[in-house]
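Summary of Year 1 activities. Much of the first year was spent building the evaluation harness for sequence design. The harness presents a backbone, in tokenized form, and records the residue chosen at every position. We chose the following record to illustrate the format because it has been used consistently in internal testing since the harness was completed.
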């Protein structure tokens, strides 16, 4: 699957290959009713997985350093209990895999190897986000603060300049509520209105990025705070909160014949895929409800 296409240049020479957020693109392409790609596309997608499999901070999993790659497809697809060939061979599913990625980020923040201000057991989460860059002097050293970057922690890759993206933790709510809820509340109560306003959490903040020409802020100060709300971050926050509360997006998805077919053509079995049997399996949710009401 090519990374992009434009009318001027045609298809990009770069491919979408696993493991990252494009999993959803492959599943939709495999399930297309009119232009489905060959099943070999999934084999190609997973062929690079072994380069990203390993152990980070005592968590063994298939890694993608920025947390968004472990979240975006999960916003729409319920991976609990369903597995493709790769996950069957490692005795876990993609949902559990994302739970481990979430725990890795928290453990990284607790270890805080670069000694960033604010990091801890309830302030964590790095992903693709805006940042305070460019580089500047901090504590007598030049620190490579980044602007927009895909920050993260994974096998063989750490990109971290002290910038926390609230979406990184909160969009992992269904995977690990026992650590995500305390982190959400801690960031909200500690930093308050400086990072949370009319549309929810601002995109990112960096408590280590401070202006030496002004008086040192108090302990709870968020330092640099992005001025933007970013829709691609706010959306997963809202959707994953609702998946945690009611499975809403996942319940709708489980009745979508195209995603079902895409998952099955990718080799997924088990769980809810096997429980959805009979003519109702391919009906949209409103049609199922109407049918059940008529039967009653």
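For this record, the design step produced the sequence shown next.
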């Amino acid at each position: 699957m090519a990374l992009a296409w434009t009318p001027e240049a045609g298809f990009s020479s770069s491919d979408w290959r696993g493991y990252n957020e494009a999993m959803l693109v492959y599943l939709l392409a495999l399930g297309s009713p009119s232009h489905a790609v060959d099943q070999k596309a999934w084999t190609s997608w997973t062929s690079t997985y072994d380069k990203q499999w390993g152990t980070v901070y005592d968590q063994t999993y298939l890694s993608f350093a920025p947390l968004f790659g472990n979240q975006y497809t999960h916003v729409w697809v319920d991976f609990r209990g369903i597995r493709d060939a790769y996950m069957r061979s490692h005795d876990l599913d993609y949902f559990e895999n994302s739970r481990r990625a979430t725990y890795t980020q928290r453990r990284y923040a607790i270890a805080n190897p670069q000694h960033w201000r604010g990091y801890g057991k309830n302030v964590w989460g790095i992903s693709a986000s805006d940042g305070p860059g460019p580089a500047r002097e901090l504590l007598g050293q030049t620190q490579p603060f980044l602007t927009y970057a895909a920050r993260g922690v994974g096998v063989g890759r750490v990109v971290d300049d002290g910038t926390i993206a609230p979406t990184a933790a909160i969009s992992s709510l269904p995977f690990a509520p026992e650590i995500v809820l305390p982190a959400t509340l801690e960031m909200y109560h500690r930093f308050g209105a400086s990072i949370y306003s009319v549309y929810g959490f601002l995109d990112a903040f960096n408590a280590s990025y401070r202006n030496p020409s002004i008086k040192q802020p108090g302990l709870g100060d968020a330092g640099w705070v992005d001025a933007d709300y970013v829709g691609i971050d706010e959306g997963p926050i809202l959707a994953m909160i609702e998946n945690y509360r009611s499975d809403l997006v996942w319940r709708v998805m489980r009745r979508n014949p195209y995603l079902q077919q895409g998952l099955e053509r990718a080799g997924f079995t088990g769980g809810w895929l096997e429980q959805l049997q009979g003519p109702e399996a391919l009906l949209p949710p409103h049609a199922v409800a109407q049918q059940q009401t008529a039967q009653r």
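The domain at 55-254 is CATH 1.50.10.140 (Glycosyltransferase). Quantitative recovery figures across the full test set are reported in Table 2.
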